[in-house]
# Entry
Amino acid sequence: MFSRLLTAGLCALPLWNEQVLATPPDLPVITLPWGKWQAEVDKKDPEVSKQSAVQTTRILSYHALRKKQLYVFRNVRFASEPERFGPSEFPTSTNESMQSPESVSCISVNIGKLENPPGGHEPLKDPESSRVSQVEDCLFLDMYVPVRAFERHAGKLPVIVWIYGGAYSLGSKSEGDILYTGRPIIKATNYNSIFIVGNYRSGALGFLAGNYMQEAGLPNAGLYDQALLLEWVQKYVDQVGGDKKRVSAWGESAGAGSILHHLIREDGGKDPLFQTFYAMSPAYEMSWDNTPDGRLDTYYRTYSELAGCGYKYDIECLRRADTKTVAKANQDLFDTVRQTGLFPVGPAVDGKWIRSIPSIRLAQGKYWGGIESAIISHCSNESAAFNPQGIENEKDFDRFLVTFLPGDSLVSQRAEIKGFYDCPKTHGGNYSACLETVIRDAVFTCNTRYLFQAYPDRSYMMDYAFATRETGLHGVDLIPLFTNSVAEAKAFLEQMKVKPTLAAIYASTLRLSIAPNFIKYLASFVVTGSPNGAGVSPLWQRAEETDGGILEDVLKVKGVYASEKFQLGTDDQNTRETCDFWHKIATEVVHEPEDAPSQEEL
# Structure
């Protein structure tokens, strides 16, 4: 994809020699009922690196750096080891000793070993970039806190809680030294914010669902892990100077899709414990068939068979299996399920947390209304990496639709989709390109509209298309958010298998033209709830809808020229016509009229 990048520019930041930081006299400690964790000085804080470059001695003055320096609390336990397929809970044991656990990840799918990986074979990040152990006792968090938060008379700081993506099947808080560190956004707020990221269960261990799981286990366990992390913030973030009344949930892809599901939890009857959110490419697939022996139960039994427990309902057998066995079955599930670019597992209707497909609940007003402001974004070429190979003709297209909406009862809905997209007319018979549009609308961009429609007076919308519409691939907006330099951006791109020369050109152009103001918009949003507090042009208006059903005043993050960098314009990828169509499909597949009452009202 990046071979089509036609940008130029050479900008090399100096490579700085590693300096020796003076040790602070007293590193802060966070005290929890189940243990203590001591901070460490973040030696990769961009401000420290900047001052290191001009430091004439080998020893940096701690006091000189104090106001612009980060502490990191690593691997803080926020839950005890959960029972397999059970809820996560705060630890009940007490411990007054200092803790220093190693970084760990929850059980994840290794997409490098998959025949049909979600997201394709060129993921946003190197699948081997996380060098940490995968275990089931994995519910730990990292917390980046400015030194100034511990100074006398310091005010309380806003808190970002990051929920990482990964197709609801992979990912970790520990993804090397670039992703999910929070350094760039904290620096952009002038060291006036706190960044927290925590693990959650994914794949089969986090998102197996269905009628049997509703009776014997816990569907959507990964969402409960995220909720416990947010509850932890409410209970303990004041120890590091955080303001529990100014919490912003941020996430990308499955992380943003998770945020959406927190907003509709129990039909909006449950406070999600955040006041603002930034949803980047919110992604999920409709997963609703929790009838006895339905599609979700079929996934459960398939997983059970792969784990050696037979094609049957026996959760105790799965709980007795060792971790290696259930991890291998998780890996095998993603190869066995005929995914064709779709996610085998993810948030699913369970009758409790998720009572219907989210687009339906949002349209019915059954969501949390206490959101103060939101940034909702998508990339301009979301689905290119998710489009399955081998879609060459109408027969292939039809076969995908059967996988997407299976069963004889959904024949009419598949026909509706085929008629609405009319591939011969709209894409000249290019069924692969046509299917790419179907996936984009159904899985990604219409979710941005549904969120906008829920919060129309509080939503700032973004279409990220740097450097061209074609290279605005899913996830590339993470690069200006999590990189501090050309070198970091280049390293990030090389992890995506981009050739070094092309990565250098793209990275230098991005860092010069887009990244500075991009991060300023977001920093202002963190501190004030509005992206317009940093004096960046243009003034980012809240989006509005035209009479023709098009969103306008959308921030278009575009090319390298000054006139193209940031513009307010319209968005043709989440039109009312298209997203109303997918909302109609959702109501039909669950046999639920738009004005259906919630379970609490019955």
